[in-house]
């Protein structure tokens, strides 16, 4: 179903994110028939070039980054929607032209795919040149601040020109199909929700493991580390979706209110509940990749998190994420308690587990106990009830839209459900700030781990002392 007609301005249109994600995402939506005939996508950046040059640049980027090779005719028809205006974010160049280009009566959206330091300048100029109207939307990328103070300042700056209902803070994890599925699984089935609490769930493991390192983006990453880059945003969102109460409706504020309550209920954590790691090896070395021989920034972090509320007290959530690990795999494993009493002499039934695979090979596995076949006694065996979305849903299951496709269309539709509200971002920083501060004060180095491993040995400590263990990363 096509969305309403729009003018989408992409600030930073010549940058990496526009090339890799935004333009290919828009192209795929166009192929799917969702971009209306009259829609315009206006590239805006400092580079002096004309629309033809930008179209050629966009076509090259789409060819490079959009999976299946697109045919030339489709690319040309898509490129006909593209325009370009050279704009200086902190100067005066281009703003009047942009103002004249915007059409009345169509949706206006402005994508800030630029360094956060420019957000304020752009917001201010959009307002002062009358380019944005009361219905316009702005889309802001992460990092949304680097601590509570800077996030508050950023929220304050944006709020001078835009209402909260106009601000779309992207966390691309929320655009992933399988992440949205967490809500479908929990709130559209009677099977899980009655068991979804500390009485029945022993613990939860959330893993986002990556094989990539930080080479090429070391200067950003070295200032952030895994906690700022992944935990404060993506992991926190996953945690919220797993732990939140059912919202009364699938409505932006209803969902975000419930997520916020989870973040606010996070118990402060001490150094004994965190392990930081840094990949160190002769061939692949974090400090070399980051071009900082003394770096103490973590490329891996594992944490034990407690949610201090009635539903979850007593059920820890173990989170871990890292770069240059053995495999690229993201999953959430909900480990249930063991049955309170076994009626079988031969074996105690092991705990059930529900594993939700976010990427790759999206799917869900429920580990259940059955009788091992054979004439002997009553020996139990645990088997997976396996569901791969690709198999269950056919071609539609494999052809999942990229997170950005979904999110950009939501901006045009005016649906903020999958975007972070200002208070949510601030609450997440309020929880991570003391962790980071303690690290800075301790000035200790992260534990070294081998590239291609499962992370530092010390991460197992978090689990072993609780008589638990991590699922293997593979
Ligand atoms: C980004 C982080 O937000 O998410 C990257 O900055 C990380 O460091 C990436 O690699 C992971 O996203 P995905 O979609 O590949 O899991």
Features:
474 residues, alpha/beta, nine-stranded mixed sheet, six-stranded parallel sheet, 16 helices, 15 strands, 35% helix, globular, binds 6-O-phosphono-beta-D-glucopyranose
Report on the structure:
The active site is at 234 (proton acceptor). Helix 1 (16-31) packs across helix 2, helix 9 (225-243) crosses helix 10 and helix 9 crosses helix 15. The model has no long low-confidence stretch (mean pLDDT 95). The two termini are 39 Å apart. The longest helix is centred in the C-terminal third of the chain and has 21 residues, at 422-442. With 474 residues, this protein is α/β, with parallel strands linked by helices. Strands 14-13-12-11-7-10-9-8-15 form a nine-stranded mixed sheet, sandwiched between helices. It has a six-stranded parallel sheet with strand order 3-2-1-4-5-6, covered by helices on one side. Strand 5 (137-140), helix 6 and strand 6 (167-169) form a beta-alpha-beta unit. 35% of the residues lie in helices and 20% in strands. The structure holds 6-O-phosphono-beta-D-glucopyranose. 6-O-phosphono-beta-D-glucopyranose binds next to loops.
């Amino acid at each position: 179903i096509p969305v309403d007609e729009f003018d989408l301005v992409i600030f930073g249109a010549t940058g990496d994110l526009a090339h890799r994600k935004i333009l290919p995402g828009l192209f795929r939506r166009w192929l799917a028939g969702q971009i209306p005939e009259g829609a315009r996508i206006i590239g805006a950046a400092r580079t002096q070039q004309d629309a033809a040059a930008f179209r050629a640049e966009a076509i090259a980027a789409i060819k490079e980054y959009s999976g299946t090779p697109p045919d030339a005719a489709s690319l040309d028809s898509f490129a006909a929607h593209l325009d370009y205006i050279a704009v200086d974010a902190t100067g005066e160049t281009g703003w009047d032209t942009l103002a004249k280009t915007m059409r009345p009566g169509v949706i206006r959206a402005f994508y800030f795919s630029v360094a956060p330091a420019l957000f304020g300048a752009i917001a201010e100029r959009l307002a002062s040149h009358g380019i944005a109207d009361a219905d316009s939307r702005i889309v802001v990328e992460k990092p949304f601040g680097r601590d509570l103070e800077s996030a508050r300042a950023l929220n304050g700056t944006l709020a001078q020109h835009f209402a909260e209902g106009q601000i779309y803070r992207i966390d691309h994890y929320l655009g992933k199909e399988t992440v949205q599925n967490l809500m479908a699984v929990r709130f559209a089935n009677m099977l899980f929700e009655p068991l979804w609490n500390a009485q029945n769930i022993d613990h939860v493991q959330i893993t986002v493991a990556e094989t990539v390192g930080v080479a090429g983006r070391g200067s950003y990453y070295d200032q952030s580390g895994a906690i700022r880059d992944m935990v404060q945003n993506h992991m926190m969102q996953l945690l919220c979706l797993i732990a939140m109460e059912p919202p009364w409706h699938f409505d932006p504020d209803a969902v975000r209110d419930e997520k916020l309550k989870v973040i606010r209920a996070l118990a402060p954590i001490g150094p004994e509940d965190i392990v930081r790691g840094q990949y160190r090896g002769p061939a692949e070395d974090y400090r070399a990749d980051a071009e900082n021989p003394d770096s103490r920034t973590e490329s891996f972090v594992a944490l034990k998190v407690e949610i201090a509320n009635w539903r979850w007290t007593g059920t820890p959530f173990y989170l871990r994420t890292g770069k240059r690990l053995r495999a690229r795999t993201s999953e959430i494993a909900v480990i249930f308690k063991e049955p309170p009493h076994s009626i079988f002499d031969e074996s105690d039934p092991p705990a059930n587990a529900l594993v939700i695979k976010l990427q790759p090979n999206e799917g869900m596995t429920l580990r259940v106990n059955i009788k091992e076949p054979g004439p002997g006694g009553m020996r139990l065996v645990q088997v997976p009830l396996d569901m791969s979305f690709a198999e269950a849903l056919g071609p539609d299951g494999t052809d999942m839209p990229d997170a950005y496709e979904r999110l950009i269309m939501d901006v045009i539709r005016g649906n903020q459900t999958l975007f972070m509200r200002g208070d949510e971002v601030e609450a997440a920083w309020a929880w991570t700030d003391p962790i980071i501060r303690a690290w800075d004060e301790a000035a200790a180095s992260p534990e070294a781990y081998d590239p291609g491993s499962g992370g530092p040995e010390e991460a197992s400590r978090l689990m072993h002392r609780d008589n638990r263990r991590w699922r293997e990363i593979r």
